Fold this protein.
Amino acid sequence: MHRKPAVAGQFYYGTASRLKSQVGQYIIEDAAKEKVIGLISPHAGLMYSGHVAGAVYSSIQFPKTFILIGPNHTGLGANVSMMASGQWEIPTGTFSIDEDLSKKILQKVAYVSEDMQAHIFEHSLEVQLPFIAYFSETVKIVPITVMQASLEECRKIGEGIADAVKEVDYDVVITASSDMSHYEPDDVARRLDSLAINEALNLNPEGLYNIVHKERISMCGFLPATIMLYAAKALGAKEARLVKYATSGDVSGDYEQVVGYAGVIVK
C-alpha cells in the first residue's frame, strides 16, 4: 500500500517548498549530534510543537530505520497496529517501510497486528516525517500505533521490539510520538508534565505508566513512550535527556488552556 498524507495542509504546509521552509525554521543547524536509542517527540501542528520536534531531530545521529510508535486517535484498526509493508508519502519525500524489521517484530510480538486501517487517517506518526525527511531521503520507517495496552503488554511489546532490533546489523531509533497534558492551565500542565517527564528521564516505564494513571495526566502517547522505554532499556539505555519543553501558550499567548510538548532523547 502507498499511504498518501492525511494531514498535509492542516498540521503542516501541503507543498514541498513551503514545508521544507517551515521545517527549516525549527532546525538547529549547529546542534551536536548524539547517538540515541529512542526519543519522545510531539505531534501537534508544526506552528505549535515544531520547535520542540525540530530541536529533538536536530540533536540525533540519523539511523537507517526509525520505528515510529504513536497513539491511535481514530479508533480504527487493532489495539496495536503495524503497517508492515509499502510506502508513506508526504510533500517532501516518500518513505519505504523496513519490511525486514517489521517482519521480525511481527514474529516476536504476538500483540502487534499487521493492519493498515489504523494508519490511514492517523496523524501522530505522519507529523514526525517532515523532520525526518529534512535530514534524510533514504531512511526507512516501521509505523506502529497503540490504542490500548496494559503495562505488562507494553513490556512485552517493548522487549519484543528490542529483540527484533538486535537481529539487524544497522542502526535503529525508536520514536515515541506524544504530546503531553491537554487543555489544562499552563501552570497545571507544567506541573503534571514534569511528573511524567521525570519518570522518562529516570528510564522508568512502569513509573511513567503509573503516574499518568494516578495523576490523570492527559499525555496521549504515554503507551508508546512506555513501550519505547522498555525497548530502550532492553537495548542498553543508560541515560535520558530533556532536549526541550514548551506549551502551546508559548506560541499562542493563551495560557488558560494549553497543550504541553516534550522532546526527550534516550541514549
In short: The chain has a mean pLDDT of 98. The radius of gyration is 17 Å.
